[in-house]
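Researcher: Structure prediction, please.
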Amino acid sequence: MKKLLVFLLIAVAVLSMAKVKITFWHAMRGGHERALKAIVEKFEALHPDIEVEAVSMGNYGTLVQKLLAAAQAGSLPTIAQAYSNWTAKLIHAGVVQELNSFVNDPEIGFTKEEWEDIWKPFRDNCMWGDKIYALPFNKSLYILFVNTDALMLAGVDIPKTIPQLVEAAKALTEDVDGDGKIDQYGFGFRTNVDTFQIFLTLNGGSILKKVGDKWVPNLDTPEVRETLKLLYDMYHKDKIAYVQGGYLSGPFGDGRVAMYIGSIAGKPYVERASQGKHEWTWAPVPEWKTKHVPFAGTDVIMFNTASEEQKKAAWLFMKFLVSPEMTAYWAKETGYVPVRKSALETKTWKEYVATTPDAEIPLSQIPNGVFDPQIGVWYEIRTVVGNMFANVIYDKMSIDEAIKWATGEINKYLAEEYGE
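Model: Predicted structure follows.
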């Protein structure tokens, strides 16, 4: 009996020593973190020799600060969530692991068909030239949230174009109790860069444009002026827009806002806010001069500071994250879109859309999605443009003053990017 006990203790010790531990820094919390934990548990059950320590930083701001600090201190995790502009900064710092050798590995990599099964826009956003530095993870699109009760009462159809959106918002804006104050606004928008960029992209414009191999400001254009004027007039002139800095799921659920454009990842919050108050649905973002809408969400990157054993284990986990079954499960639990086309054929996805058919609506927008420039200073540029937009909406600057100021600030950051 004593020999058996000694043998078992030795066996446990050997197995423990053989286990490879990888650390995954992420920003998920709440239901999203619970879904990620379930994926980790499924992976560890299939790979008992690998331990995945998933560490939530609580939010993206904290995550990027920790990653940049860890890159300088030499204390990076094995893998992490990252927006492409973060990845660009970390590539410049020389700490991101190129993934081509893993993707092309004949034993643990992707076949050509598997790699191309990932939606092309998501693949493209993970590449810098012919080098692969990431795999897509939590990807979302923007969608039009609609209070269907309000539209039905007003006899208004779901708008399919931006001019129709404006007209519908006019019909939906009303002083319900007759006290001289608007109780229901037809449309709502946030005074942040995302709102401005969505409308600008639909209008055929862009914040930056490529000249040769460098990005330059692209704000002094008719498209930018038209976009700023449209949103300014909706708020000030027509008074059909409810405007605030924070998320709009609350005002939408309370009936103060009949329509707004938001990320599909906000669906659980809209469901909770609207429950027992009104019916709602979502629809593709209305088109303007184009149907293009920005993608949102992050990828997963690996750091070259890890050991070779950790890199292999991390790759297996990253590949598991984007497997058809897991990306379908992740989409079902969180509202993000599956990153693989074949995920739509899984039992998990088919059962989900059988009970939630509107989950397929955002997928129609994937071919029209566009990504941000893959440059390290994109976060800083977004901050400048967000301030430009808010300054115009809140009458702190005229449109011309705001464009001139923002262009000057962007040029400073681009000079930093290119070492000029």
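Model: Residues 142-294+373-417 form a domain with the D-Maltodextrin-Binding Protein; domain 2 fold (CATH 3.40.190.10).
Researcher: Thanks, that helps.
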